[in-house]
UniProtKB/TrEMBL annotation:
Name of this protein: Beta-lactamase
Spans through the membrane: none
Metallo-beta-lactamase domain sequence ranges: 20-220
SUPFAM superfamilies: Metallo-hydrolase/oxidoreductase
Keywords carried by this UniProt record: Exonuclease, Hydrolase, Metal-binding, Nuclease, RNA-binding, Zinc
Organism phylogeny: Bacteria, Pseudomonadati, Pseudomonadota, Alphaproteobacteria, Hyphomicrobiales
Xref: SMART domains: Lactamase_B
Domain of life assignment: Bacteria
Length: 557
């Protein structure tokens, strides 16, 4: 039973208004004494050009840190990076137990062991179809089909009603590896009463129903069987069903499978331990590749998203120490580029084609299916669960808006337009956005976490577009110039639009400025630096049309 003043709250901190970085909080209790659970803790890939030097992004957990002592645990729906990838970096800020099913738990552990200095995480295993009680929250893990084993929705029961958090899911009656999504189970939950459906929006703009993983398996088998020479298949390392399909196809036509890439090796170890590769021949390491006949090998490669250091990119640049492809070989992209990665993927495809290698993608063959529901599948979920409230998540603004319209067409009158940082009261009474809390992104810059407002990123972006001029000037204590100023240019063109030598333009601007300052002003280092900075930027802009960044250093001798 709920007490007077109790409220049921949902606060997304990542993954709502964007793809990736999924993290959300559910709270229960009165405003000053709430208990919380977190669902997922994922990362995003920084593919945006305005983030030079940044590879990974994590959700800002400032709000969660404020309530750390009242967070009862982190519940992981499945093992994709956008749901678990931030654990290594961000878990130490919370230090609360993490709950996951066996495959996901082992994947998190394997990933942690592969990272130097990674923290020892408090992991708790949840059985398939498992239930656990965390304070006022009774949580049921509900198996769903997705592109990784052991994906789960979460039925979160509270004294004020049940929230069904779908996680990533689809309908697939023949999934090859992993769960199917049970109509019977979700109908049971709907009959019990679903207060709010917090549902995946990724494919809401696509009509119909996603094809089955078994259909992809059949097409891959045909493409591998009729290939004249080597075959390389690149896919998400976590897609064990796809991995299993490739192994079965290779076995049927007498080929050996070679896995290439650390992420692939890690998932293979976990999948084998959990029984998902039972009945298959051994998957060999990259060192075996060069000893196998050209027509007797299938390579499973990481790098389907164009990652520059992954196996496929290195192969396409002919830089991999053990794997090479030649004209007439076949590369199958059993994946789809995540938004933002299209250019990197396209560059690899172009390199392969230029080398005479045949490239097959999902644009021409059924070699990939999404792990997310299309409209017919979503309609079924709404029909089964009959929620009072719809909360679209896991998508960009377009997906969320389309999902809101779609939910209303399914008969749901109350649709909450959540974004990262919105604190939504789901119960009691009418659902509403009560306030906004701090949310945003944290960037992984080398080995350092930096705030999204850190000056390093905009400064680096400016350097990328305009270059930098460095000048060192020696002055004595009387303001006399000693020697010639030292000038260095980086990222500027050699000549201006009329053929001016830009380093000479800079040198003239420095000399003119120093000579124009009185000896008294030249004794003020800061005044000299500012004057030279302005003069250089103005002079270069006149001949180039851009103002470079400047670093002026006055050395007192």
């Amino acid at each position: 039973m709920s007490n007077k003043g109790d409220e049921l709250i949902f606060v997304p901190l990542g993954g709502v208004g964007e793809i990736g970085m999924n993290a959300g909080l559910y709270g229960f209790g009165p405003p000053k004494a709430r208990k919380w659970i977190m669902v997922d803790l994922g990362m995003g890939f920084a593919s945006e050009e305005h983030l030079p030097g940044v590879d990974l992004m994590y959700p800002d957990l400032s709000f969660a840190e404020e309530h750390r002592k009242d967070i009862l645990g982190i519940l992981i729906t499945h093992g994709h990076e956008d749901h678990i990838g931030a654990i290594g970096e961000m878990w130490p800020k919370l230090k609360v137990p993490i709950y996951a099913t066996r495959f996901t738990k082992n994947l998190i552990e394997a990933r942690r062991l592969g990272e130097p200095g990674a923290p020892k995480v408090d992991m708790r295993e949840v059985p398939a179809d498992g239930r656990l009680q965390l304070g006022p929250f009774s949580i049921e893990y509900v198996p769903v089909a997705h592109s990784i084993p052991e994906a789960n929705a979460l039925a979160i029961r509270t004294p004020l009603g049940m929230v069904l958090h779908t996680g990533d899911w689809k309908l697939d009656d023949t999934p090859v590896a992993g769960n199917s999504t049970s109509e019977e189970t979700f109908t049971r939950l709907g009959e019990e009463g679903v207060l709010a459906l917090v549902c995946d929006s990724t494919n809401v703009t696509r009509e119909g129903r996603s094809p089955s993983e078994s259909e992809v398996s059949q097409h891959l088998a045909e493409l591998i069987r009729n290939a004249p020479h080597r075959v390389a298949v690149t896919t998400f390392a976590s897609n064990v069903a796809r991995m299993r399909a490739v192994c079965l196809a290779a076995q049927a036509c007498g080929r050996d499978v070679v896995a290439v890439g650390r992420a692939m090796d890690r998932v293979i170890d976990v999948a084998r331990e959990c029984g998902y590769l039972d009945g298959l021949p051994e998957i060999r390491g990259a060192e075996a590749y060069g000893y196998l006949p050209r027509e007797k090998v299938v390579a499973l490669l990481t790098g389907s998203q164009g990652e520059p250091r992954a196996a496929l990119a290195r192969v396409s640049r002919e830089e991999h120490p053990e794997i090479a492809l030649a004209a007439g070989d076949r590369v199958i992209f059993s994946s789809r580029a995540i938004p933002g990665n299209e250019r990197a993927v396209g560059a690899i495809i172009n390199d392969l084609i230029e080398a005479g290698i045949e490239v097959i993608t999902d644009r021409t063959e059924l070699v990939h299916v999404s792990g997310h529901p299309r409209r017919d599948e979503m309609a079924a979920m709404y029909r089964w669960t009959k929620p009072q409230i719809a909360v679209p998540v896991h998508g960009e603004a377009l997906h969320l808006a389309e999902h809101a319209t779609f939910a209303r067409k399914q008969g749901v009158e109350k649709v909450m337009k959540a974004r990262n940082g919105t604190l939504i009261r789901l119960a009691p009474g009418e659902p509403e956005i009560v306030t906004r809390v701090k949310s945003g992104r944290v960037y992984k810059d080398g080995n350092v976490l930096v705030d999204a407002n850190d000056r390093a990123i905009p400064e680096r972006r400016k350097l990328a577009f305009t270059g930098i001029v460095s000048v060192a000037v020696a002055l004595d204590r009387n303001g006399e110039i000693k020697g010639e100023p030292s000038i260095d240019l980086m990222g500027l063109p050699s000549y201006g639009r009329k053929g001016e030598v830009i380093i000479d333009v800079v040198g003239d601007a420095v000399e003119r400025t120093l000579n124009g300052l009185s000896r008294v002003k030249r004794r003020d280092s800061e005044a000299v630096e500012n004057a030279v900075d302005r003069a250089i930027r103005s002079a270069v802009n006149e001949v180039w049309g851009k103002k470079p960044a400047c670093h002026v250093m006055v050395v007192e001798v």
